[in-house]
Amino acid sequence: MRALLFCLILCSISCAKKTLNVEQNSTANSSLAQLAEDILGKENTEVANDSKTFTLVYQNKNETTQTVKYVVLDNLSKTVISKGSFKAGYIKWKTENSLEILDIPGIIPKDKTQADYIKIINLPVNKK
After folding, report:
1. How far is 8 from 76, CA to CA, in rounded Å?
2. Does residue 127 lie in a domain region?
3. Cα(65)–Cα(73) distance, rounded to whole angstroms?
4. What keywords does the record list, in alphabetical order (predicted)?
């Protein structure tokens, strides 16, 4: 009976420790998600860069959204390092520290192509 009680207590302690680590990690992730939601509202898409140092968060497009807002979050410092918006285009990671944005106006002049409206944004990188 004592051995059974001892095993039960031991299992409870080890499970509690694992739960605490998961809760701490999810608190860090939820604080980033909350930061993005405070700026952009709900219904966002999150895309981390390859090294997971930055997270790009942008509003989901719908019928009423003409301009899409975005923010780039530093996952370590939990801060916003870049924000902006674009119309009728896309945003994606180009490299580890840069974004490619297609920001098309309502009507493209005859002498321009879609490629003329692609912007590259280089993110500030902390040097160690």
Report:
1. 38
2. no
3. 22
4. Signal
Question: Rounded to an integer, what distance in angstroms lies between the CA atom of residue 94 and that of residue 49?
Answer: 9
Written as six digits, the tokens of 66 are: 């003409």
In contact, 57 and 40? CB cutoff 8 Å: yes
The single-letter code of the amino acid at 105 is: P
Tokens of residue 78, six digits = 């939990």
- How many whole angstroms separate alpha carbon 69 and alpha carbon 99? 14
Q: What are phi and psi of 31, to 5 degrees?
A: -70, -35
Residue 34 falls inside a structural domain: yes
H or E, element range at 41: none
Number of domains in the chain: 1
